[in-house]
Every structure is written in C-alpha cells, then in structure tokens.
Amino acid sequence: MGSSELDADISELKGMLEKAQRPAVRKELQRVLSKLEAEKAAAEKPAAEASAAAAPAAAAPAPVAKPVPVDVKPTGPWQEITTFALDLGGYDKPQVTVDVRL
User: Fold this and answer.
1) Helix extents (H) in 20-82
2) How much is the pTM?
3) How many CA atoms lie within 13 A of 28 on its CB side?
4) What are phi and psi of 30, to 5 degrees?
C-alpha cells in the first residue's frame, strides 16, 4: 500500500473514530488505526536500513528439521465389520436405523 493510500485510510479512520459511539466499535477502529500507523512508520524507514538488516539474516542458512519416527500401536482388540445396513427413513422421519452384524 502506498504512503498516500495509508494517509487517506488513516484520515478516514480518524473521522470514523470521532463519529463512533459504541465502545466496541471505537476499540476496533482504534486497533485498525494503530495498525495502519505502524505500517506507515515502517514504510517511511529508509530502504537502506531495511536491506542492511536483512543481509546478515539472509547469510545464515535456516536449520533443517529431521523427520521424527512415529510409533503407531493398536489401542485394543478390533473386529472387522463385514456387513451393515443403513436405513435413512424418509424426509419426515427424525430417526435413522443402523444394523451392524459382526
């Protein structure tokens, strides 16, 4: 977002904040206003400072995470369900019927 757009957004938010009556609305508008003012301050910093600060960070490689083995164990005796039936009833019936045979 350009500086002129940020200035326009900030001035509009200030106008809205003056007209707002509800505490929750005022709080949210103030939060957004603070965020936009922080963005404006960050955008106004010289680009040279930003690139100088980014150069050392780019030189150091990020550590690579190694995969961790996962041990999966069954939690109990299981029996396969070989057949089942599902009766959804009708559109006007609030219950369904499930018949499971082991």
Assistant:
1) 23-44, 47-59
2) 0.44
3) 7
4) -65, -40
